[in-house]
Specification:
With 172 residues, the chain is an alpha+beta fold. The protein is 29% helix and 29% strand. It is built from 4 helices and 8 strands. Bound molecules: coenzyme A.
């Protein structure tokens, strides 16, 4: 596989249309999606895959698929997307498959994405949000130095989600 970004254990590549089985397994998993509106059916996962592919074309970012470097196993996804059309501000996200929970893979992936956003792209600030009861995500954002900024309605039911921000170090 051709990875464009590496960590000590993970490789990042771009989604392709052939990845439908991977996204069905990831976004169709009720545990992965517990705090993000519940599992997607196959059609919704396929639509999200098309959206991620289109974002890579339009903006040069997506929630990239990540793999164990040694075995090639699919670990999940982590990456970036535009945030409210704010210039040079991107939202960061991470979805790890349950068999890899507890290994700090999410943290390792997001650290690489932060480095890519601030080092390779001209990103000024990153934002991230999580479901109100997503304690693992809250703890992760805390470890990464994100600061609480605001709450905003999220999803079909407009549930208020806390949002956090991390500013590019050289600009603080
Ligand atoms: C949130 C997430 C990325 C955390 O990844 P991480 O920071 O690398 O964390 P780890 O998997 O190493 O786990 C850290 C701790 O949280 C616990 N934990 C991890 N994921 C958990 C989850 N989904 N639910 C409950 N506990 C969880 C681990 O057991 C571990 O406990 P420990 O500190 O006592 O060892 C990962 O759980 C995930 O992808 N969840 C599903 C998708 C999701 O909610 N993404 C965030 C959207 S905002």
């Amino acid at each position: 596989m051709s990875y464009f970004l590496h960590t000590s254990r993970l490789g990042f590549r771009h989604w392709t249309e052939a990845d439908l089985p991977l996204v069905v397994a990831l976004w169709g998993d009720p545990d992965v999606m517990r705090h993000m509106g519940g599992p997607m059916d196959d059609a919704a996962a396929a639509a999200r895959l098309r959206l991620e592919i289109s974002r890579q074309r339009a903006f040069g970012v997506q929630y990239w698929p990540i793999f164990l470097s040694i075995t090639g196993e699919h670990v999940g996804c982590s990456g970036l997307r535009p945030f409210h059309e704010e210039p040079e501000v991107l939202e960061v996200g991470v979805h790890i498959r349950p068999q890899f929970w507890g290994g700090r893979y999410g943290e390792e992936a997001v650290r690489a994405v932060i480095g890519y956003a601030f080092g390779t792209l001209s990103t000024r600030a990153l934002v991230a949000g999580h479901g109100p009861e997503n304690d693992a995500s809250k703890a992760l954002l805390g470890r990464l130095g994100f600061q609480f900024s605001h709450r905003e309605p999220w999803g079909a039911h407009d549930i208020p989600h806390p949002y956090y921000r991390l500013t590019r170090p050289a600009l603080t």
